[in-house]
Amino acid sequence: MESPNKPRHLKNTRFTKKKVERNDSSSGSEEDVEANKDKKNNVPCTSSTSSTCVDAPTDFLENFRLHIPNWAGLIQYRDLRNVTLTNTCTIDNFLFALWHLSKIKPDSFEETEPTQEIVGLKEIVKLIDIHKWNLAKEKWVNNFLKLSESPINKTISLFGSEKNFFLNPLKKIQRHELIQLCKVECIQNANLIIRDDSEEIFLKKIKKQIVVHSCYTDRCTQCRKKSSSFIRFYKKTRFIFFQSADPNIFIKDLPDQLTIDNEDFKFLCSTVYTSRHFISIFKINEIFYKVDDLDKSLVALDEKISSAYFKKPTTVSLYYKD
Ligand SMILES: [Zn+2]
Fold first, then answer.
1. Which among 163, 227, 262, 311 is most buried, taking Cβ atoms within 10 Å?
2. Is residue 286 classed exposed, middle or buried when 0-12, 13-18 and 19+ CB atoms within 10 A define those classes?
3. Ligand 1 centre distance from Cα of residue 186 (Å)
4. Are 237 and 173 within 8 A, CB to CB?
5. Residue 16: other Cβ atoms inside 10 A
6. Which protein residues have a CB closer than 5 Å to ligand 1 (ion)?
C-alpha cells in the first residue's frame, strides 16, 4: 500500500466547499467554543423539552464540527515541554472518530474489565470533548506511541502511515484467532484454529463485494476443499478498524453493516488519502461528510460537485457495535 503523506497543499480549491451552516456568529475560537458549549450541548432531550429537540440534528452536527482537530499540536513529550507535533493527520482522523463514537454510542468505552487501551482512549475522548485537543494528542503520543526517535528541534513529526501511528498501538483491542471454514461435512470445518494471535483485519473487494479478509487461503488438509476462515475475538470489541487490503475500495463500496464474530458492526467513517494527506469521510444521517484537519473543515459531499472524493481509495475504516 502506498504510504502517506506530508501534505503539500493546504487547501484544495478545485471543489466547492460548502461549510456547514452555523447558527451563531462566533468565530469558533476556543473561548467561543467554551461559551457555546453550555448553551448547546447540555439540553436534555425529553418530551417536556420537545421544542428544543427540533434543532437537535443541526446542533449535533454543529457540535461535531466544533470538535474537529487542528492539523498539528503542542505537547509535553515525556519531560520535554512545548514540543510541536506536525503531520498529525495520521492520528487526528481516528481520535476524532472515537470521540464521535462516544457521542453516538456512549457505552462504546464502558467495559466491566477494560483493557489499558480502552481506559486510555476513554481519557482521550473526554479531553477532546472539552476541546483539549493538545492534551488528547499528548496522551496519545506519550501513552500509546512508542516513538523510536527523539524530537528534533523540539518537533515530532507523525509523518508516515496510519498503521504505524494509530492502528498498531490499538491492535490488541482486536486480537483474534482465525477459524477454518471448509466443507460443512468436514471435521475441520469451524473447528480448526488456523491462526492465533492475529490483530489486523482487512477488507477486500472480491467480485464487487466487500468481504472481511484474513489473508489466508489454503486447502483444507482433510477435505482438500479451498478453505476460508472466520474471526473469533479473544475479547469482544465494541469497534473494529479495517484496513483496505487494496487501493480499490471506495467509500460507497463499504457496506453500512458488517457481521463479524456473530455480531453486527455499523459503518462510522473511513479515511482516504488525497494530495498526500489523510482526510476522513463520515456518514451521518445518510449523508457523507468530509472532515479535514488542515482547515478544520466539515463539508457535506455532494455526488456531483464532490465526486472526486467518492473515487479516492479508502485506507482504513472504522465500524462500531450498534
Ligand atoms: Zn475440510
1. 227
2. exposed
3. 5
4. yes
5. 10
6. 182, 186, 188, 220, 222-223
Contact of 256 with 267, CB cutoff 8 Å: yes
Cα 127 from Cα 105, distance rounded (Å): 17
Q: Are 92 and 71 in contact (CB under 8 A)?
A: yes
Distance 258 CA to ligand 1 centre (A): 25
Q: Quick one: cell of 274?
A: 488525497
pTM of this structure: 0.82
Mean pLDDT by 10 residues, the chain (322 residues): 40 37 35 39 37 65 97 96 97 98 95 93 98 98 93 96 96 93 93 90 93 80 90 95 96 96 96 93 96 96 89 97 93
Spatial separation of the C-alpha atoms in residues 75 and 18, rounded to whole Å: 32
Region of residue 226 (left: phi > 0; alpha: psi -120 to 50; beta: else): beta
d(CA 177, ligand 1 centre) in Å: 18
Q: Strand, helix or coil at 216?
A: coil
Instruction: State the burial class of residue 92 (Cβ atoms within 10 Å of its Cβ: 0-12, 13-18, 19+).
Output: buried
